[in-house]
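Lecture 7 notes: from sequence to structure.
We start with the chain below.
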Amino acid sequence: MAAEPILFQAGQWLAVAGGALVVVTVVAFLAGWGVRFRLVGVSSFTLLLAVSCLAFAVSYVQRVSIPGARSVPIVYDNGSDLVIAAAPDDLSAEAIRPTLEEVARNVRGSGRTSDNGKIDVRLRRVEPASAGVGRPLVLGEAQVELATGTVTLK
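Predicted C-alpha cells for the same chain:
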C-alpha cells in the first residue's frame, strides 16, 4: 500500500483528535482545571502532527521503478547539477542502462540550480589501479532537464 493514503488518513484522524482536545482545553479553562495548560500543549502538538501528516501526504511522490534495474546508492550529490551513483561489482552490462535510468528518474529537481538547466547523472564503479589506489570508471551518463524532468541517456 502506498504511503500517501495512510498518511492522509492519519492526518484526518489526528485533526479530529486535535479538535476534540481543543474542546476539552476550552472546557478546562472555563472550569479552572489544573491541567488546562498541559492540555494547551497537547492540543497544539496534536494539531501540528495533523497538519504535518496532511502536508506530507499531499507532497509525497513515489519512487520510479524500472524493470531490470538494480538499487544503487547515490554516493555524491552536489545539490545543483551533478549526481553520482555507485554500481556494485556484480552489475551486469544489461542492467546498466535501466539502473541509470531509474536513478535519473528519481532525482528531484526542486531546489536545484544549474547553468544549463540540466542535471548530469553518472553511474560509476571504482576499479583497483594499483595497491590501495582505485580509479573511477564511468559506466553510463544521463541528463535530466530541470524544467520538464525528461531523461536523456548518453
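Points to note: The first strand starts at residue 74 and ends at 77. Strands lie at 74-77, 82-86, 118-130, 133-145, 151-153.
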